[in-house]
Amino acid sequence: MKLAIGVDLGGTDIKVGVMDRPGVLLKKATLPTRAADGPDQALDRLAEHIRELARRLGLRTDEIAAIGVGAPGPIDRDAGVLIAAPNLPGWENTKICPRLSVALGAPVSLENDANAAAFGEFAHRIAAGERISSMVLFTLGTGVGGGVVIDRRLVRGSYDSAGEIGHMIVEADGRKCPCGQSGCLERYASATGISATFQERGGAAVQMTRDICSKAERGDPIAMGAFDVAAKMLAIAIINLQHLLNPELIALGGGVAAAGNVLLEPVRRYARELTWRLVDDLPRIELAVAGNDAGMLGAAALALTNQQ
Amino acid sequence: MKLAIGVDLGGTDIKVGVMDRPGVLLKKATLPTRAADGPDQALDRLAEHIRELARRLGLRTDEIAAIGVGAPGPIDRDAGVLIAAPNLPGWENTKICPRLSVALGAPVSLENDANAAAFGEFAHRIAAGERISSMVLFTLGTGVGGGVVIDRRLVRGSYDSAGEIGHMIVEADGRKCPCGQSGCLERYASATGISATFQERGGAAVQMTRDICSKAERGDPIAMGAFDVAAKMLAIAIINLQHLLNPELIALGGGVAAAGNVLLEPVRRYARELTWRLVDDLPRIELAVAGNDAGMLGAAALALTNQQ
């Protein structure tokens, strides 16, 4: 039995999963990151945890086929180094792959976490019997991230910076973004963006997207309007993806997608209303299904692919 | 020697080229399409021309490794059928591949002409020694078309409708497009779009982009403004491509790109001005180099790939 380990390295938690084929989780666990204590202790505990997992499965760690780590970028994928991450202060230039592969004797590869999540969503659907070869995942959280799968392969880009869907410009000269652009999708369709629209239109200062969502469910026009703006901007991004890549599926994940139909219905309506009339080639638009496991699923699946 | 034939089927001309490796043309010729006389006579003349080409090269037609045809879409690629084309009236449902492969005894494959041109530009650059694996070609003509190459492969999309770059929305609620959308790139950056901006701003009714270009070169502010709008919209589309796919190169081709620096300089300036400040991952932006040969080069190169 060939086993792969997927790791999703976050600012709060480290998620670890064991898979015997892409997209199927045998076992999972969560460790605290204790980010402020620096990378050494975290990587030591992670290695020890993986050793323990292997022991329980009756394996030596050098019998693990592949270990994949998803981490917030930017990363140097070839070197397996985390360059920097806003929610992992003090972790600059952490040599994740070299350290773990020496500690465990198994091949370790590093991926951008949003790209890993997109490939995890894809692998999860394939494992469940879905027949797709191309999809785009939008991860709608505090910001908007994502990833692109074409012909069953993750699109990484020439500087490993593909899939930065949140910074597609959907409104020329629109809202200023901290990235330096104006009119980024993220400014409208993230939790931050929805909250900004809500307050801009006179809604009370509420902190959580789920509160605005509850209001929208109860018919509050300002809350509904905030989701409507997010949905229209998402629809424009989806239409642009459709024309450029013609993927089969758009999956909406992340905390904001927990709004379910409050978000999904207007996104579908706008996409159908605003797209062209020439060919009916709009992709399916669905909620993501792999949830919080997507990152580790994808990291493991990509690590296995890298071994082939 | 394995030879491939590339065909670019247009409303006016049929271009035919012979290649012994992707991106390198040994010989080329042009036949009139005589579109109004229907597909039978055109395909008969094309088959006869290919027979004659093979004869001169001392080959039987069934020794040709692959024949690739690029045609204006929509096409049914699997069946090798041209479904319809605005500038080939009466050619609906022409069985291009079945007819040519029976007539010639060689494998024939069909591609969308804009996608073929993108792959031709890519193959041409690779043959010339350039080391790239991803690029996007914008074909700026009466409309705006294009094609996407990722990891050395053409992105065709799930309904073969990828690369419709002209219909990316760059201005929400912008100019109406005959396709049914509003704010398509094509409405600003095609010859038609540049002409519309020029007249909208009070420029005299001139028909040709090259006349507006000459005026812009002489410093006419209205003409310069029309190219400026096209350039800004192209820059937004390029930034969106950058974030989504992070390609190495954007190539600008088609009749409008003959404007050279009148177009290229403001596109580069806007792209640099409007893109994010987080990572310097803007692709190179250049004029296309394969010119009118791109379609047949790409059709042949893709046909060879299909045989592998």
Per DSSP E runs of 2 or more residues, the count of β-strands of chain A stands at 12
Tell me the distance between the termini of chain A: 16 Å
Q: Strand sequence of the main sheet of chain A, in spatial order?
A: 3-2-1-4-7
Which regions of chain A contain 5 or more consecutive residues with pLDDT less than 50?
none
Structural class of chain A, please? alpha/beta
- What is the beta-strand fraction of chain A? 15-25%
For the sheet with most strands of chain A, the description reads: 5 strands, mixed
Summed over residues and divided by their number, the pLDDT of chain A gives a mean of 94
Rg of Cα set of chain A: 20 Å
What is the helical fraction of chain A, as a range of percent? 25-40%
Oligomer: homodimer
H/E element order of chain A = EEEHEEEHEHEEEHHHHEHEH
Shape estimate of chain A: globular
Q: So how many helices of chain A?
A: 9
Q: Largest interface, by Cβ-Cβ below 8 angstroms: which chains and how many residues each?
A: A-B, 49 and 49 residues
Describe the structure in brief.
2 copies of one chain form a homodimer. The first copy, chain A, has helices spanning 39-56, 96-104, 113-127, 186-189, 191-200, 209-217, 221-245, 261-274, 294-307; strands spanning 4-9, 13-21, 24-32, 66-71, 75-76, 81-82, 108-112, 135-140, 144-150, 153-154, 249-253, 284-287.
Folded structure, characterized:
The structure is a homodimer of 308-residue chains. In chain A, a hairpin with a 3-residue loop joins strand 1 and strand 2 (13-21). Chain A has 9 helices and 12 strands. Chain A is of the alpha/beta class and 308 residues long. The first copy, chain A, has a 5-stranded mixed beta sheet with strand order 3-2-1-4-7, sandwiched between helices. Chain A has a 5-stranded mixed beta sheet with strand order 10-9-8-11-12, with helices on both faces. In chain A, strands 5-6 form a two-stranded antiparallel ribbon. Chain A is globular and about 60 Å long. The longest helix of chain A has 25 residues, at 221-245.
